[in-house]
Write a structure and sequence with these properties.
- Chain A: Pfam families: ABC_tran.
- Chain A: InterPro entries: AAA+_ATPase, ABC_carbohydrate_import_ATPase, ABC_transporter-like_ATP-bd, ABC_transporter-like_CS, P-loop_NTPase.
- Chain A: It comes from Actinoplanes auranticolor.
- The complex is a heterodimer.
- Chain A has helices spanning 45-52, 75-80, 98-103, 116-128, 145-159, 175-190, 202-208, 231-239, 300-308, 330-335, 345-349, 356-368, 376-390, 406-418, 436-451, 463-469, 494-503, and strands at residues 7-16, 19-29, 34-38, 60-65, 68-69, 83-86, 109-110, 113-114, 132-133, 163-167, 194-198, 211-216, 219-225, 266-273, 277-284, 289-293, 315-320, 323-325, 338-341, 424-428, 455-459, 472-477, 480-486.
- Chain A is an alpha/beta fold.
- Chain A has 3 domains: 7-239, Rossmann fold, CATH 3.40.50; 263-337 and 423-507, Rossmann fold (3-Layer(aba) Sandwich), CATH 3.40.50.300; 344-421, no CATH class.
- In chain A, the strands form 5 sheets. Chain A has a 6-stranded mixed beta sheet with strand order 6-10-11-3-12-13, sandwiched between helices. Chain A has a 6-stranded mixed beta sheet with strand order 19-20-21-16-22-23, sandwiched between helices.
- The longest helix of chain A is centred in the middle third of the chain and has 16 residues, at 175-190.
- Chain B has one domain (28-336): ABC transporter involved in vitamin B12 uptake, BtuC (Orthogonal Bundle), CATH 1.10.3470.
- Chain B is globular, with a radius of gyration of 22 Å.
- Helices cover 72% and strands 4% of the residues of chain B.
- In chain B, the strands form 2 sheets. Chain B has a two-stranded antiparallel ribbon. A two-stranded antiparallel sheet of chain B has the order 3-4.
- Chain B is built from 14 helices and 5 strands.
- In chain B, helix 9 crosses helix 11 (227-253).
- Chain B has helices spanning 19-25, 28-47, 54-79, 87-103, 108-132, 137-155, 165-172, 185-203, 205-215, 217-222, 227-253, 264-274, 286-306, 312-336, and strands at residues 12-13, 160-161, 174-178, 181-184, 255-256.
- In chain B, a hairpin with a 2-residue loop joins strand 3 and strand 4.
- Classes of the chains: A alpha/beta, B mainly alpha.
- The A-B interface holds A 75-76, 79, 90-96, 100, 104-105, 107, 109, 112-114, 116, 121, 124-125, 130-135, 137-139, 141-143, 147, 155, 180, 183-184 and B 1, 9, 11-16, 19, 22-23, 26, 202-205, 208-209, 211-212, 214-216, 218-220, 222-225, 282-283, 336-337.
Amino acid sequence: MGDPPILQMTGIRKAFPGVVALDGVDFSLRPGEVHALMGENGAGKSTLIKVLTGVYDIDAGDIRLNGDPVRFGGPLQAQQAGISTVYQEVNLCANLSVAENIFIGREPRRFGKIRWSEMRRRSTALLAGLDLHLDVAAPLSTYSLAIQQMVAIARAIDVSAKVLILDEPTSSLDASEVERLFEVMRRLKRDGVAILFISHFLDQVYAVADRMTVLRNGTLIGEYATAELTQMQLVTKMIGKELTVLERLEEEPREVAADAPREPVVEAHELGRAGAIEPFDLAIHGGEIVGLAGLLGSGRTELARLLFGADRPDQGTIKIDGKPVTLRTPRVAMNHGIAFSSENRRTEGVVGELSVRENIVLALQASRGWSRPIPRRKQDELVERYIKTLGIRPADPDVAVRNLSGGNQQKVLLARWLITEPRLLIVDEPTRGIDVGAKAEIQRLLVELADGGMAVLFVSAELEEVLRLSHKIEVLRERHLVGELDNTGGGVDADRVMQAIASGANP
Amino acid sequence: MTDVKAPPQPAVTVTAPHKRRRADRRHIPVLATLALLALMYGLGVANYDNFSDTQVLLNVFVDNAFLLVVAAGMTFVILTGGIDLSVGAVVALTTVVAATLLNDGWPAALVLPLVLLIGTTLGLGMGAVIHYFKVEPFIATLAGMFLARGLSLLINRNSIPITDPFWTSMAQERIRFGPGIFISTSVVIALVVVLAGAFVLAYTRFGRTVYAIGGNADSALLMGLPVGRTRIAVYTISGFLSALGGVLLSFYMLSGYSLHAQGMELDAIAAVVIGGVILTGGSGYLFGTVLGVLVLGLIQTIITFQGTLSSWWTRIVVGILLFAFIVLQRLVTRRSR
């Protein structure tokens, strides 16, 4: 491991308007190692990759390949210099043969005529080098996603074999396919290829990576040998424990209101969907905030979507007020009093071109059906009440939502669901990307709603936030619901949750 | 690959299960068309006297040579996942321009390259609009269709007879294989176009890029393929072949008329689809398009032989077949995903 690094990045800084994505980040990659890049969503992993492959220009810092300073104009240039990237989605053409996918654009030719037999021979040999024995004349679509992924890797290393970036290659593979991919990675490692590996599955990182670099909020936390860092330590470094004073709510997590009904509002039993979330049991009572904790990709959003009928479960049952229901569509869920405020407020939530008023009445109108329009006077009354209650600024119902700040857009989205007077409110990442003040307001609002008897399912990547608000914390790890921590009275601290995330056991 | 002493490997061996059957799946639509063609021919032979004459079959080629050329261009476009609605109008424009100039005394040697150039330029223009302005092919070629049809109406509303000696000789020239067995020169030209097109699609980088774009244009771009250039090129080819089809039609009709080839774009699309090319692109063969044109031609022949049926039955049968083949494509592509 004493080799000089093939790739050395030092003091990398990249700022976008309003946000510093990377600040003074160092990263080095040696030949023949698998180096994992770790961090939560927004930590700067993808920015670092994009900076390296020339998608973005850097503001400050130095990138050296084999000791020579380099700046790439784009992924193609980076590829020519020996840095290839394989993305999460396989970027190949499934309708073409395996051999063509490896060689298209650089087929062996004679007088302009493609030499198919030569191409097949060479791709067979290349894949055999990765211990893959495929019928290279068959269309790529006849093979599994894992094999397609490996064909993409074969193409990448045949084009240039020095540095290989694997950006979440395993997120759509099953366990045996992942093992097959790791086999290929280990083989490439022995051949001296430097591999940068990004995955949010900790077990996988520990299975294959030699070293890891941890980023958080665009800054470098450190570089560690995998063997010297426990999963617990890693999770701590990724999530961070510091509490900013501003964010801390004054109230301790509250007791569930005494007169809360004993019967859960929503009860899921063995509910699951293949590839999204393993079967889980979950009960949410009125007046209770249930928090979902887990790393990115652990199945937080997937779980929430099942409860809203946005995805169909493969198995299990949902009971609302003790009666079994089938939530075929979000519409059905809405009729049962379930509201879902989506994590992508721009793409799945608010309609930017419409006014605040129109956005707020959207869900209520939908649940009434289009044949029964809400009278204008009632609209004004409702909208005004919620603008006041939630403190939406500017307090003008006719301004287009597009012109509001992120926090206020989030409030409009909340207002839209609150107006339907839901029994269960599912909020997915309501505080992402909004400023601290607005964040605290939204948190306070959720607490008040629960005090008023509403059941709230709160999904957030920020552990501190989950801890502060929730009465009950459900811990997710790699698409399993691994534990439930009772937080009434604030008995749970971040360490316990992290331990549950890292070990998968309920402590 | 003659490494006999390769050690036994605890390898990741993946043989595509049912490999043969799956590889054949890409041929299912073409085979279905071939079977349909055989069935139709058999029906014709069984029911009508003289249907089995070789010349009946050859006449299908003679009567549809221009459609074959136009459909070959359409095949390139549809393989990239695009569509070209302008082809019929470009055919008409070609016949009108050629007839007008020939009647004005222009030499055939000048008129011929000129009309081919006009069609090619129109195709290039539409391709450029589609690529640079990110306009949907449907809209861009619809505009091209109105433009070309409008231009030909502007030049002359009436049918213009062609009397040029080269044109008349091309119209009457027959390549004879025996007594009463012959094809026209247009058929030879069409077959040359088909063979050249098939070679380009199967054996050149350009051809394979056409398939790659139809499969997944974003991936093709990330793999460093010249997506923009190729996309413009297929519309240019379609424009050129439409003009060539127009020339062949004017040989066949010996006239130029702005209302020639009404709806030919739809016939061409129907032939391509019945021939097994998938409308979303990336799969199919030019050979299939030839079969598709023959199916359309045979339907017409059978209806002619029948004698009592209205010619609108052609449309009805084509409609039913199109529907059946699109459903077949759905089934085939769905299972291979």
